[in-house]
Design brief:
Helix content: 25-40%
Oligomer: single chain
Distance between the termini: 50 Å
Low-confidence stretches: 1-12, 18-32
Strand content: 15-25%
Structural class: alpha/beta
Bound molecules: 5-O-phosphono-beta-D-ribofuranose
Amino acid sequence: MRRFGSYICSDKVKGVSDFTAAVPLVRTDIMSTDSALVGVIMGSRSDWETMSAAARVLQDFEIPHECRVVSAHRTPAWLTEYARTAESRGLKVIIAGAGGAAHLPGMVASQTVLPVLGVPVQSKALNGMDSLLSIVQMPGGIPVGTLAIGTSGARNAGLLAARILALSDPELTQKLHEFEADQTSMILSKSELSLDE
Ligand code: RP5
């Protein structure tokens, strides 16, 4: 186990079986295992370019989180174990990103009562429309909160997870107010346009 800043890193997720050690970490420097509140999972390492936007938001708000590859099709047993142990391990929100036949968010949501936020990764073949429709069209009874396709969706999933956690965390609520105020003043400070640009 290694420590990077305030994050504890491990090659294993606490509370799940040994075979998961074979599942690669996506990025160890933002892993938080014992105290993770948000699980950021994705169908493939190739999704990390998109899903890192969610992790970055969580890091900026100092929200303990873990980032893992969990594939609905290639590692279905690991998916079930991840989803079924998520609540008892202390996770509060799961952000799940996938592309193409994007079954990960829905399959996770079917095996946990934690809120699941789905991020459609922009696929090459169909530009993410396949991912979006696969994630958004859930049958009644199994909710997945679906975000926009691509990096904006991943970033907003991180922010939405922060808002969910802020419901019981006044300090985090304050940080969200500050974030909103900073964002507004940044946009307003650059609101003028000229033909020279
Ligand atoms: C999905 O298939 C993943 O979420 C990824 O977006 C897509 C392609 O995966 P790779 O072939 O790049 O591993 O399961």
